[in-house]
Amino acid sequence: MNALPKFLTGRLFLGALSIGAVLLAYTAVTSQPDNNPALLPPIPHIIGSFFTNLSAGTLLDALWASLYRILLGFFIGTSLAVVVGCLVGWYKTVEFLVDPLIEAIRPIPPLAYIPIIIIWFGIEEFSRVLLISIACFMVCVVNVIAGMKNVPQVYVDAASTMGASRFQVFRTVAIPAATPFIITGYRIALAAAWTTLVAAELIAAPSGLGFMLQEGRRYFLTDQVMMIIVIIGACAFIMDRTFRAIQKRLMIWSETRE
Amino acid sequence: MPEIVVDNLTHTFGKGGAEALTVLEGINLTFENGSFTSIVGTSGCGKSTLLKMMAGLFDPSDGEMRLDGEVISGTDRRRGMVFQQDAVFPWMTVAKNISYGPRLRGASNSEQREIEAKWTEMVGLKGFEDRWPRELSGGMRKRVDIGRVYANDPDVLLMDEPFGALDAQTKERMQTDLLEAWQQSRKTVIFVTHDLEEAIFLSDRVVVMSARPGRIQHIENVDLPRPRKDEMRLTDEFIQIKRRLWGMLDH
Q1: Which residue numbers delimit the ABC transmembrane type-1 domain (chain A) (predicted)?
Q2: Does chain B have fewer CB atoms within 10 Å around its N or its C terminus?
Q3: Which of A161, A168, A176 is facing B55, going by the closest CB pair?
């Protein structure tokens, strides 16, 4: 291994290598004479679909519709999760009161709420944002609670013996000590938001990436389906990377490096 | 005058249950203002428990403790504590750790800067103000810890084996520096350790405790002159005290 030049064993090169290999294999399969492009569209078709939808404006419209739902649902869900999670994780009375409820609801997959949400609120924008909020809340709140419960006792004791009130300990010790958990909660919530979004849009939406997937299936536009899948992957990847950058920034004090 | 009195204190864990364990029994002690007392004993003698109760981290099951005649209950900035574990907040720089206590009470920015400058210098960390704790060695973090408690200006300093995790050289250096800081401020110090030499070197008085249940076995007044120098550890007088106390500990 030592004989290999350094860049050959680097992250960038190896990453490009594995992605390149998959693309190459896919191209090899799709360029077989008996390949049915309606089932396995060749890469140029997928790229073609991208540009067609881009110039027609349909892609950007769908992208904005989806991003709007994701960001709004994510914001509402995680904000609530941080408030509830902090209170449950820090105050025993709140924990005894609220934790059984959270534990009871937690195992239910958010998608199970789709029928009841449609019955109550109809196929509206509100319903979709609500569903994403629920999904984000449930995965995030568990992490926030865990973060609060894992605050090392010695930090709490140290702050108390320096005269900090219970609330001051909460604000100056518990919150920063729990930050790594909270940020992880945000990242998992983001992934949950994408999952839920696509499911919600597949079932009931007049717009969005999920809608375009559904449309592609209905009209047998396999290249469009493939293209949207790649777009979703790219968006989720970019958002997660952004989060990791924020995490690195906030966690500059931490020993564990991302 | 700030004086701590421990009055007929007994503590039992798991009271009432079948597993009830009495860790401290009938403890009577008085710590005079400005004195340096060490409490030694083998593990399980309840010395850490006693210290934590003095800090107000929990209440004794029987008996009481008073600071200036006032019964101790709950934590208070007047009783500062240095822990055996690393208690430096990793999310604050050295300077921010030092000024934590004053900041809690709304000290102005300029007051905070002043305190940070004074105590980083005092504990020998000048130039490290803006470092993160993760960038420091264990000994340096302990210095931050001690500086932070000092900067908070308590009346009594409770120290729970603060140097237990340090290597021998660092430990001796820290002991000398601690004595120097104590000499200047003359705060009442109660120092828990299982290291006899450390206890004798630092203290006016060494309290020896026996285990299960923890009782006071002996109180030794250490009359070695101050300021204490490292060489004293090797004098006959020092070694005699050490030998006597060593014989009393449960081995």
Answers
A1: 59-240
A2: C
A3: A161
Q: Which of B91, B156, B158 to mutate to test the interface with A (most CBs of A within 10 A)?
A: B91
Residues on A contacting B at a C-beta cutoff of 8 Å: 152, 154-155, 157-164, 168, 172-173, 176-177, 179, 252-255
Architecture of domain A64-210: Orthogonal Bundle (1.10)
**CB–CB of A168 and B104 under 8 A?**
yes
Instruction: Tell me the CA distances in angstroms from A215 to A44, A130, A212, B74, one per residue in order.
Output: 20, 24, 5, 66
The full set of domains in chain B, from first to last, is: 1-78+156-167+187-251 (3.40.50.300), 85-153 (no CATH)
What is the spatial distance between Cα B147 and Cα B59, in angstroms, rounded to a whole number? 27
Q: How confident is the model over B10-67, as pLDDT tens digits? A: 898 876 666 788 888 889 899 999 999 999 988 878 889 999 999 999 888 888 898 8
Token reading at A89: 């994780």
pLDDT per position as a tens digit, A17-58: 999 999 999 999 998 888 888 889 999 999 999 999 999 999
